[in-house]
Amino acid sequence: MVLLLRQLILCVWVCVSSALVVHSLPWSVYCPAGCVCQIKPWFSPQSLSCEVPTVDCNNLFLTQLPSPLPLNTHTLCLQSNLLSALETPLLHTLPNLTELDLSQNRFSSVMTLTLTEPQIPSLRSLLSLHMEENQLRSLPPASFSSLPALQELFLSHNQLASLAPGAFSGLGSLLRLHLNNNHLTSIDPLWFTTLPCLQVLMLGGNPVEVLPERGFQALGSLRSLVLGGMGLKGLPERALEGLDSLESLSFYDNLLTTVPTQALRRLPGLKFLDLNKNRLSLVQTGDFRDLVHLTELGLNNMEELVAIERAAMENLPELTKLEITNNPRLSYIHPQAFFRLGRLESLMLNSNALTALHQHTVLSLPSLREVSLHSNPLRCDCLFRWVAGEHPHTDADAHTDTQMPQAVRFIQPQATLCSEPPELRARRVREVSITEMSASCLPLIPPGILPPYVGVREGERLALHCRALAEPQPTIYWVTPLTPSSPPLPSSSAYRLLPEGTLEIVMVTAREAGLYTCVAENTLGADTHSVTVGVQGPGRGLREGRSHEGKGQDSKHEEQHTYEESLDRYGYCSWRWCSCRWAESGDACGSGWDYWCL
């Protein structure tokens, strides 16, 4: 603590004294050949700004330190040279050296920073050390113990594959540690036990697939943690336990298929969460519930995200900004997706596949001030009547006079255009009047929510997600290639229809190969969308459920599928799916085959 106090006093003295002279006198010293010596701005690790004596020797192809160095050097820049070792006694002659930049050199070991007399601290005043883009492969115990005042350590973009458990011992004052983009394959909790003051930790870009439970428990002061680009597929429930001060967390560009809800709930102070560019297909009910201090949330750039479910974000009383953009398959946000988000002001939904933002979604956000919907295939019908100022009630609010608290501003309104219906195509949404929008809407299953074909292996679980928006709210059901051994939906043990419209096959067998059709229906009509499921068995290719002619004894127990085109009760053309099996006589459906139809 005494050392830290002395260093803080020194930093303040340098800032104050430099501020008094920099504007009246240049730094007139003998400068090493090729280097530039001047007074330049500098930001301390505590974000104090001041002007300090700086020696800039970048890009000089140096193989050793330039000499002589001015005695009062505060910042020494040696970036992009050919250094592989340092004459540390020469650096020891610089009592005010506070920042040392050795990035983009040829260091393969950090031992070159240690004096031959280890009992004497080599760089008492050094606060910031940059060693990015060198050739470091490992860190031995106490690698930086000769730098007792160090507060920032940058080791990113090296080749670090192993760190000794005590590699950072002696760095009790360290505030920022950058280890991103190295070759670490696991996280050892012992790395952090000697870093009680650490506030920022960057580990992204290391090929780590699994985090240990309580791996960061020693970092009670940590405020920002970056775990992007690591190949994480999931998080243990206690992976983030102990991070009581954490405010900012990034999982950018990982392989997460679900929101790590249980792990996030162990972060009582979390304010900023980045889940961009992961493999989520659904944001499900309760995924973001009770993160009471969350202020900003990012769910952008997800190739597989198709839907935001009912109450997916619930009781986030401090959330002010929500970004869900650049998700090419995101075509559905449940009308009650957002619940108790009383302070949400900015909702970014541009560059998705959304056909609408339901009026009930907007009405549920009393503080909403701006929304971004451009670059979506928007359907300007009854669901968008809130844009023109009319807000139909649902059963839930039929007894109240709910109105928008104030007009919501469109971001890029000139690019927020109608795609449907044809007569309004390319019109600006804001310019369409209520009288031009229908008061009710036919169901619409967004084209991108279901792919045309899905391949799956026998024994795996398969979930087919189907969603639709309409007014009145549609009912969703599925037509499937059922066999005689499977009773009709939804009571089958093989099939399960989830409330929002997802069809789940618990354990796929060859019998589940075939055509699956989702039907969304309300009192006005219906919409359908089909997907072919192919099943791959042991040593076989994918079976796509095509028709079989039933020729020969070997084929008598094969399934045969037929379609019947019919009109539903509302006069809309739809497909009826039938499945049949050989019944010991005849050779075609309709003679000796039994029909099993939905």
UniProtKB/TrEMBL annotation:
Name this polypeptide is given: Leucine rich repeat neuronal 2
Sorted UniProt keywords: Disulfide bond, Glycoprotein, Leucine-rich repeat, Repeat, Signal
One Pfam family here: LRR_8
Span list, region Disordered: 530-560
Stretches with biased composition (Basic and acidic residues): 541-560
Stretch forming the signal peptide: 1-19
Domain Ig-like: 443-534
UniProt feature coiled coil, ranges: none
SUPFAM superfamilies cross-referenced by the UniProt entry: Immunoglobulin (SSF48726), L domain-like (SSF52058)
